[in-house]
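Worked example

This section walks through a single chain of length 165. The input is the sequence exactly as stored; nothing has been trimmed or padded.
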Amino acid sequence: MPDPKIFSTANAGDEAYELVGIDKVKLYRFGDDTVSVDWLSRARQAAGGTFTRPGKVKLNEWALLQSSYGSKSVSVGTGVNPFLSVATSYAALFKNGEPWVQKIITGTPNLAVFTVPFTVVFRPSPTKSISKMETEWLYLDDAHDIKHYLTEMRVNPYLVRPVTV
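Given that input, the structure is written out below as tokens.
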């Protein structure tokens, strides 16, 4: 099994992304700021905090499972996955997201902005084309939870608010 790809300008290709300095990338994740599990991987939740980083082969296996989360053919499963899905372009994620992704986006109140070192941003080998279209990358939630890198919490621009009469 191949190693997972670490974020780099070469691995991102022609996808939209914004660099911060020479070794960090701006990432986005939709969620509810008041719900802690929206910002923690299943592995961190199961461990009640930090956990040991798996080897590269296991990382790639988990990355493949996480990037296939919405697929009917693959299930993330047992709650030990150390990744959170993030995007380098929230607009591309919304525009190109599968229907289940768009449902999450339009029903979630917040858009979080993070500045994250390349060393904790992965993509599986091979990478599904839909993941590239969505600019989906995977944050490895081991040393720090993703909120450690939070730079801004915004109101979700795609939130669909119920109409009240």
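What to look for: Strands lie at 5-6, 19-20, 24-31, 83-87, 110-117, 121-123, 136-140, 150-155.
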